[in-house]
Amino acid sequence: MSNMTGKNVLVVGGSSGIGLEVVKQSVAEGASVWSASRRESHELSNTGVNHATLDVTQDVDLGFLPESLDALVYCPGTINLKPFHRLKIEDFQKDLDINLLGAVKVVQACLPKLKKSEAAAIVTYSTVAVRQGMGFHASVASAKGAIEGLTRSLAAELASQNIKVNCIAPSLTDTPLAGQLLSSPEKREASEKRHPIKQIGSAADLAAATMYLISPAAAWITGQILHIDGGLSSIKSL
Questions:
Q1: Residues whose CB is less than 8 angstroms from the CB of residue 232 and which lie 6 or more positions away in sequence, other chains included
Q2: b/e for 114-125, b at 16 or more Cβ within 10 A?
Q3: CA 17 to CA 44: how far, in whole Å?
Q4: Domain that holds residue 125
Q5: pLDDT of 182 higher than 70
């Protein structure tokens, strides 16, 4: 657990899934939290979290933020799994708009505020499907692969300004976004068996890693793609 008292944190996509859990853990650690998403979560009522309506596919206005920002967590994502021959250019464009270009807009808008922090952090999200080729993932893996490239490039560019930039690449996680993939006991069991640890991830698992990366404890970590995937991308069960 890391003390985030006095830190200003923005979570984009903080109304559900991993983003919502990051918001909750940030509040629990004493941070001042701003959540920006298309819809406000009823779970955040009376928590002191500042909510702003934001659609990352449109113009991004972050004038609601304080002058200084210590952490930016960009959580929006997509799961659009189709055979390659059925994917349209519009599918690729949508995945890019949400996963990559939305992140670009938000980071650019936040950068002046991040620069005012003594030590700021940015966390993005990729997918295990970038490192481990998976069928039917062509569109989302392309967009998330671009996020990994953006993360490394920004880490290099912003290091001299004491801004850390890292990315988390999870495997299947039990969130509303993955609901259709886990919609029956049989699907859930099959997904668990694909992972060496024999379980799927939780939003809390990913949020805990995120909290570490935005905390002072990770002061010497930047430009990394952290694979939190139950061992799927790196080990093989016997």
A1: 128, 132, 171, 194, 195, 196
A2: beebeebbbbbb
A3: 13
A4: 8-228
A5: no
Task: Report how far residue 90's alpha carbon sits from residue 97's, in angstroms, rounded to the nearest whole number.
Answer: 10
Instruction: State how far the Cα of 235 lies from the Cα of 23, in Å rounded to an integer.
Output: 31
Q: How many helices (H) and strands (E) does the chain have?
A: 7, 9
pLDDT tens for each residue of 133-146: 889 999 999 999 99
Domain count, the chain: 1
pLDDT in tens, 15-49: 999 999 999 999 999 999 999 999 888 888 778 89
Whole-number Å distance between alpha carbons of 219 and 178: 32
Residue 190 in any domain: the answer is yes
φ, ψ for residue 119, nearest 5 deg: -155, 100
Please report, for the domain that includes residue 132, its CATH number.
3.40.50.720
**Alpha-carbon distances of 228 from 59, 82, 98, 128, 167, rounded to whole Å:** 32, 24, 22, 8, 10
Residue 149 lies in a domain: yes
pTM: predicted TM-score of the whole model, two decimal places: 0.92
d(CA 112, CA 68): 8
